[in-house]
Amino acid sequence: MKRLFFIIPIIMIGIILLIGSCSQSPIVDEISSSNNGNETSDVSDSSKPSITLVIPTNGQVVPESFDVIVFGVDNRGIGKIVLGVGSQEKLVLTNLEQKTNDGIIYSFILTNLYHGVGGTNQVFAFCEDLSGNISSTNKVMIVVDTEAPTVSIISPTNLQVVSTNFQLVLSASDDVGIEGLYLSINDDGFVKISSDLNVFTNLVLTEGTNSIKVYSKDLVGRMSVIQSVSLVVDSD
Question: In total, how many domains does the chain have?
Fold first, then answer.
């Protein structure tokens, strides 16, 4: 959630520009013209609202619980916003906080959805205005990552005697993919060494007993269990 605080101001700038481009709504012009002629302003509203699904983006990998940002616009006001995944409506938002800019009324919503089915899923959003007009449905495809990654130290094995220059072999797995493999030698902090699932790398250690620890991290930030081995380096 913290990283959203950095991107929300950017999103809001785009929203202000979008509102400006929508400010010449035919319905708004008709009402204005009617008022200037001292005629009734009770004009029927047949104009559909619009909705933009800002986050998540198409193709984004997310955990089961993920943030959603939507932006609804109408010339009279938004009555409700509906969010869902697949064919299932997950959340119906009413009593929305609404703001006005140049005759255009808009609602900006930051919320959260939960979907426990892993793999590729469709997120959708639509809104209904106060007159019952329904927007087109905005859709994006996401990948829901439901599992933590794993990692194994293939070589060397625990308590193995190795030379000062030896090969470290690691193997990781995840249901979607990994962000990286991280290595710590003798508890000297973890360093990312690769984004591949299988790693073959040479290490040079000092003589005597040494420890190696590794973990993997997936694309949504889940960490594997840390795996470790102790080994004896013999230069003879």
Answer: 2
State the chain's mean pLDDT as an integer.
87
For position 102, what pLDDT does the model report? 84
Residue 15: which of 71, 58, 53, 68 has the closest Cα?
A: 71
Final residue belonging to a domain, choices 90, 112, 144:
144
| 41 lies in some domain | no
State the CB neighbour count (10 A cutoff) for residue 62. 22
CA distance 98 to 17: 17
Q: What is the pLDDT of residue 12?
A: 54
Tell me: the pLDDT tens digits for 150-178? 999 999 999 999 999 999 999 999 999 99
Task: Name the domain boundary from 94, 129, 144.
Answer: 144
C-alpha–C-alpha distance, residues 49 and 67, integer Å: 23
The Cα 34–Cα 18 span in angstroms is 26
Q: What CATH number should be reported for the domain holding residue 27?
A: 2.60.40.10
CA distances from residue 123 to 94, 96, 119 in whole angstroms, order as listed: 19, 21, 13
> Is residue 43 a contact partner of residue 27, using CB atoms and an 8 Å limit?
yes
What mean pLDDT do residues 91-99 have?
95
36 band by pLDDT with thresholds 50, 70 and 90: very low
Compute the Cα dihedral for 148, 181, 122, 70 and give only its sign.
Answer: positive
| Ramachandran class of 82: left when φ > 0, alpha when ψ lies in -120 to 50, beta otherwise | beta
Burial of 233 (0-12, 13-18, 19+ CB in 10 A): buried
